[in-house]
Automatic annotation (TrEMBL), chains A, B:
This is Peptidase. CDD domains: proteasome_beta_bacterial (cd03765). Gene3D superfamilies: Glutamine Phosphoribosylpyrophosphate, subunit 1, domain 1. The lineage of its organism: Bacteria, Pseudomonadati, Pseudomonadota, Betaproteobacteria, Rhodocyclales. It comes from Thauera propionica. Residues 243-273 are annotated as: Disordered.
Length: 273, 273
């Protein structure tokens, strides 16, 4: 699996991806999931991928090959991010046309998803989530982030912290915490990480760093966040059972007996010890 | 979906389940997922279920019908929790034998999982996770909890807090936080909740409460935990980019060009803005 997250904020874009791929737990490799197309002053495009590695590599290779041919329609000359997302979607469909049937014969799903974000010229920064079918959705100020891959472990902290007004540095911190929670709970996500920060209207990559275990900031996040969670957990009061409402009708539990009608548990039950 | 969690701790057992079922977002119902078999002084068994509701209800109904017949092998006379888990597994297999083919004709997977925990007579409290195939695993002091259903959102806090030495009240608090994170991130998990606490060697249910939005403790968890997370998030320092190692070799990004060989992004890149 993989975990990638991207946020489209008032100040710009933050993207974070891991680099673990696995085909079974004994076949783990490191492949970067983030590809950056940059022409300073004109456009920055960040493409992140999750799913079957052979499929996602095919898509990225075709996009690159087209991008290397001058005058061919490509990520370099598409006039808008929307057109770029359509190009990526069309490329996924090409790979599907070529490979899906053969994969199906081996019982392998056509499993791939992409995040595309960036800014082109006068457009605002935009963020798209592109599905295996080649269709896609765009983020908005109400839903300013997308995740692909092993997304559930790291979603609660994003839901609680991120809004379109979040600063780029805070968003980077939140993305790293989300990644740390995912890595902790799921073996198939792992370091090194690729972190990219793009400041709105800069039309060049602001910061693009590789993060491994020797990175002191991620190490601090890894150690401190868990400790902070345990601290606020300890600060929250334990339930004080004496204050729990006692008027709730006790729920019957199943008692032994032959021929005795067995009643479904009904709503509402407090039985004190 | 559903979310259920059970913990087997030195002090006893804590079980928490939600009550939402859904077949599509426009077909949401409330069904309890926790069934308790209790014969004070002899045994307490807690069975929680996730998956296809028709399957899990069939399993529970058969277990109840057998339990209602005296002298029949059932959850009331099985001598150990292990035998009880085998009974549940055998019952799942019976339902599979009867229903799986018909379900398959409608493209419906045979999807069901169960948590069984409790204590019988002189045995210590035990906790089992029973799969759709009828096989099962048992918790240990290294892995003292199991989850079924929509388990990923609520796993990070369990991973960080719960060990077999956690007290029952702390474990109940942690289970409720885990549930709150899940409810917040996933529509298919919802109140009311069933919370059951069992004190080791009590051989009767210590506490069995139904929790709805009018429960002040859960309301406190719901409000305070999010606020606490945001507070410790704000306390963690943002990345101070000036301290990030600069010696890492810059990673080439893809530049426009025809015929220019396109290089894979290599490990390690810092480009400052």
């Amino acid at each position: 699996m993989t975990y990638c997250v991207a946020m489209c904020l008032d100040e710009g874009l933050v993207c974070l991806s891991d680099s673990r791929t696995n085909a079974g737990v004994d076949h783990i490799n490191t492949f970067r999931k983030m590809t950056v197309f940059e022409r300073p002053g004109d456009r920055v495009l960040v493409l992140m991928s999750a799913g079957n590695l052979a499929i996602t590599q095919s898509v990225i290779n075709i996009l690159r090959e087209h991008a290397a041919v001058q005058d061919r329609q490509s990520l370099w000359n598409a006039p808008t991010l929307f057109e770029c997302a359509r190009l990526v979607g069309d490329t996924i469909r090409r790979v599907h046309q070529r490979d899906a049937e053969a994969l199906q014969q081996f019982g392998v799903d056509f499993n791939a998803s992409f995040i595309l974000c960036g800014q082109i010229a006068d457009e605002p920064p935009r963020l798209f989530n592109i599905y295996a079918a080649g269709n896609f959705i765009e983020a908005s100020s109400d839903t300013p982030y997308f995740q692909i891959g092993e997304s559930k472990y790291g979603k609660p902290i994003l839901d609680r912290v991120v809004s379109s007004r979040t600063s780029l540095d805070e968003a980077a911190k939140c993305a790293l915490i989300s990644m740390d929670s995912t890595i902790r709970s799921n073996l198939s996500v792992g370091l090194p990480l690729d972190l990219l920060i793009y400041k709105r209207d800069g039309l060049k990559v602001s910061r693009h760093v590789s993060i491994d275990w020797d990175n002191p900031y991620f190490d601090m996040i890894h150690g401190q966040w868990g400790a902070s969670l345990r601290r606020v957990f300890a600060e929250l009061p334990d339930p004080d059972w004496t204050t729990w409402p006692q008027e709730i009708e006790p729920r019957p539990r199943i008692q032994e007996g032959s021929g005795v009608p067995l009643r479904e548990p009904a709503a509402g039950d407090v039985s004190a010890d």
